[in-house]
Amino acid sequence: MKTCSADRVIEALWERLGLKKTLTAIEQATGATVPYERALLAMVANRLSDPESKLGVWDRWLSSVYLPSCTSLKLRQLYQAMDLLHDHAEAVEKAVFFSTANLFIQPGGGSDLLRYHYRLLPYRRRR
Questions:
Q1: What distances in angstroms separate CA 55 from CA 23, 67, 74, 105, one per listed residue?
Q2: pLDDT at site 47
Q3: Structure pTM?
Q4: Which of 2, 10, 22, 36 is an S-S bond match for 95, by CB 3.0 to 4.6 Å?
Q5: Could you tell me the CA-to-CA distances from 57 to 21, 22, 23, 25, 115 in Å, in that order?
Q6: What are the C-alpha distances in Å from 32 to residues 25, 28, 66, 77?
Q7: Is residue 32 scored above 90 in pLDDT?
Q8: Contact predicate 99/88, CB 8 Å
């Protein structure tokens, strides 16, 4: 039986963080014909839900979850996806940073980090 619980949430977060868009653009720019973005999604989803090795992801885990776009992946593609990620890590990091940076922008156009009122922070007195 395939489960659908965390996998769909992880995939939605993956897209919201801009990882799908960024990695797909990298695939297109490099001329890759393999869905490396899907391979990376599968490995990340696995790490977040039921950690396995790349072999375990391919051999056991993919058949037990509902990620239909990942069912045709080959083991070597998982390893190649890691190489692609390594080669383009800076671009991926920038994309994630800028997709989450808006969490730190204050309403009204300010660009300061979220500010916490000092009274809301826990205070411990040293003795």
A1: 22, 17, 10, 41
A2: 85
A3: 0.73
A4: 22
A5: 23, 23, 20, 24, 41
A6: 10, 6, 25, 11
A7: yes
A8: no
